[in-house]
């Protein structure tokens, strides 16, 4: 099947990856980043795709990962995917934070795009955090120890990579909660640790535009929408007020 009317989104994502890649040549980024000093902070912006129900968010994410056209294959965005996850409200396993963390570790290892990661994640201290029960007790700590810190300790790849999370708003509760429970779901896990993402890694999330909780998590208190795009609009620079505006 052909995939219509979303080429502009792929162009925007490609531009974001190119921008991150160009930043890799900046002074100090050739060496492994120091997770203690927070060297990844400042370059950890991402992309949030938002649209109404049935607007094609999942179809777009699927096309990004597994292009169905010759043009999509030639564009090659799928080759930059370090990991992905699809949340489904009808499948509770896909909303499980610990399951998401384990799955992401597995996909990063399988991708082979960051060779040093395999060695770092094989260390006994890291493997212990992935053990059944340990990851469930503290998935946020496991995410930090088994995904973010190992990636920060790896040499930056020659080109920027991305992690894709579809329907990140599924299962996201909007009620009040204690501040200590900042990782009650996958969206909050990502938002709470976003500044630890390495500067060469682009986080791409999709969500329904009606979910204001997600908007606040990923774009802060600033107004994130200045122009509604039919079906899908795209906001750029998660955790900042910058917005990519586009009118097809």
Q: Write down how many β-strands occur, each being a DSSP E stretch of 2 or more residues.
A: 5
How would you state the average pLDDT, rounded? 78
CATH superfamily: P-loop containing nucleotide triphosphate hydrolases
What are the low-pLDDT stretches, counting only 5+ consecutive residues below 50?
Answer: 28-42, 174-182, 221-231, 239-248
SSE-based structural type: alpha/beta
Q: For the report, how would you describe the main beta sheet?
A: 5 strands, mixed
CATH names the topology as Rossmann fold
Distance between the termini: 22 Å
CATH class: Alpha Beta
Strand numbers in spatial order across the main sheet: 2-3-4-1-5
Taken in chain order, the helices and strands follow as HEHHEHHHHHEHEHE
- CATH architecture group name: 3-Layer(aba) Sandwich
Binned strand content = 5-15%
- Cα-based radius of gyration, to the nearest Å: 17 Å
SSE layout and pairings?
Elements: H1 7-23, E1 47-51, H2 57-65, H3 70-75, E2 81-86, H4 97-111, H5 115-121, H6 124-129, H7 134-137, H8 139-152, E3 161-166, H9 186-192, E4 201-208, H10 212-219, E5 232-236
Parallel strand pairs: 1-4, 2-3, 3-4
Antiparallel strand pairs: 1-5
Question: What does this protein structure show overall?
Answer:
With 248 residues, the protein is an alpha/beta fold. The protein has one domain (6-245): Rossmann fold, CATH 3.40.50.300. The protein has helices at 7-23, 57-65, 70-75, 97-111, 115-121, 124-129, 134-137, 139-152, 186-192, 212-219; strands at residues 47-51, 81-86, 161-166, 201-208, 232-236. A five-stranded mixed β-sheet has the order 2-3-4-1-5. Helix 4 runs parallel beside helix 8 and helix 5 packs across helix 8. It is globular, with a radius of gyration of 17 Å. The relative contact order is 0.21.
């Amino acid at each position: 099947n052909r995939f219509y009317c979303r080429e502009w989104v792929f162009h925007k994502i490609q531009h974001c990856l190119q921008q991150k890649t160009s930043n890799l040549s900046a002074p100090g980024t050739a060496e492994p980043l120091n997770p203690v000093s927070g060297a990844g902070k400042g370059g950890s912006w991402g992309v949030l795709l938002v649209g109404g129900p049935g607007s094609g968010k999942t179809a777009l994410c699927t096309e990004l990962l597994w292009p169905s056209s010759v043009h999509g294959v030639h564009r090659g965005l799928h080759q930059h995917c370090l990991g992905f996850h699809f949340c489904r409200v009808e499948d509770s396993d896909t909303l499980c934070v610990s399951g998401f963390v384990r799955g992401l570790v597995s996909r990063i290892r399988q991708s082979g795009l960051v060779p040093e990661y395999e060695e770092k994640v094989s260390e006994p201290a890291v493997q212990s955090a992935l053990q059944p029960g340990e990851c469930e007790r503290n998935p946020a700590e496991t995410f930090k120890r088994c995904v973010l810190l190992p990636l920060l300790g790896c040499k930056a790849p020659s080109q920027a990579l991305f992690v894709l999370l579809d329907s990140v708003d599924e299962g996201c509760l909007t009620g009040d909660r204690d501040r200590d429970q900042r990782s009650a779901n996958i969206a909050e896990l990502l938002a709470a640790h976003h500044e630890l993402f390495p500067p060469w890694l682009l986080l791409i999330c999709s969500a329904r535009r009606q979910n204001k909780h997600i908007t606040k998590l990923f774009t802060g208190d600033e107004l994130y929408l200045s122009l509604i795009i039919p079906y899908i609009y795209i906001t750029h620079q998660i955790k900042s007020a910058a917005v990519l505006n586009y009118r097809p």
